[in-house]
User: Which sequence fits this backbone?
């Protein structure tokens, strides 16, 4: 399989952590591409009309996206612990993944506002609105984290990607003021899958 | 169950069409709320930290989101034709849903750019980049539509929401120039679920 990704993309990172947690990495070629909403990549565009990463070419040649679809697909290819449960806890896991995706979408929009959009067109009201979502989301993660225990499923993988992305792009955002979240992150940050995919 | 939604939201519409197609509407109270990225809604915020619609409160009181999670959950509550297949065609259906979600995300960002952001801070480069995704996506839908036949699963429901949203918010965008897509839409636009949820 071929995975279009970039080490800076938190959505691609989610897939790359799943690939490592499930032992599937040897079957996946990770192809690094640079994309932004205003500078598309021709190779990727031929496989994903949205020109977004991650995208995965399966062994049959077909391409799937987005990160949630790829993670669920990969989860069917191994016999270890499921990343996405099939039992009654599925909805809680998928909701937590969606919460993390939403925080990341808000953070990526803020990144674009500050680094892609020309300075004259930046609007503080937009960044404030997105940061309200980020901080409400972090409050929710902090309230939920104590119940996670040692579980490292799709929701927790998403949370690790959220916190890693904030450290990487918004180092001044003091998310560690939420003690429950900070202490949970300490329990996962040294996992091999997390270390190997840390944005540099 | 309670569904936070708004008739103008294409993501909420996806859920509302699924509720009608699967016969679940009598079990769902649809609650209309107004939200924008810069004016959150307190009732919704108490249930979804991202303050986004749609969000669904299940009968056990727990709340799930986003639209993809809600649609999959609803699909487990009925015994009719599955909206999201469980067989090998699942990945194609979920990829098509993700394509439609991506087109809608780009369109909604353009809507915010043109109607939420103050005029002085609007940037043509952003709208151009998002419209490239919308049009690439529409080209892909047009190339795929002839193979859909009479199927009206999650991917086709997403496509109907894309086309309805463009008519509603971007009526000058001539997506019907893609004949295959225009003729497919004619086959679904009069379905009861589509008519009942058409944004006005």
Assistant:
């Amino acid at each position: 399989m071929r995975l279009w990704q970039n080490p800076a993309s938190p959505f691609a990172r989610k897939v790359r952590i799943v690939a490592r947690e499930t032992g599937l990495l040897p079957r996946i070629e990770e192809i690094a591409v640079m994309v932004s909403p205003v500078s598309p990549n021709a190779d990727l565009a031929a496989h994903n009309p949205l020109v977004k990463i991650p995208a995965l070419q399966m062994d049959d040649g077909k391409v799937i996206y987005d990160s949630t679809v790829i993670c669920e697909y990969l989860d069917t290819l191994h016999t270890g612990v499921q990343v996405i449960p099939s039992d009654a806890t599925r909805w809680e896991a998928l909701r937590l993944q969606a919460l993390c995706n939403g925080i990341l979408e808000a953070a990526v929009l803020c990144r674009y506002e500050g680094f892609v959009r020309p300075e004259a067109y930046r609007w503080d009201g937009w960044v404030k609105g997105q940061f309200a979502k980020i901080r409400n989301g972090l409050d929710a993660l902090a309230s939920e984290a104590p119940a996670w225990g040692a579980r490292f499923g799709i929701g927790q993988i998403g949370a690790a990607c959220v916190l890693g992305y904030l450290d990487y792009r918004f180092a001044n955002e003091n998310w560690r003021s939420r003690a429950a979240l900070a202490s949970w992150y300490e329990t996962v940050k040294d996992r091999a899958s997390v270390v190997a995919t840390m944005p540099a």
Notes: Chain B touches chain A through 46 residues (CB under 8 Å). Chain B has two domains: 2-74, 90-193. The longest strand of chain B covers residues 2-5. Residues 2-74 of chain B form a domain with the Glutaredoxin fold (CATH 3.40.30.10).
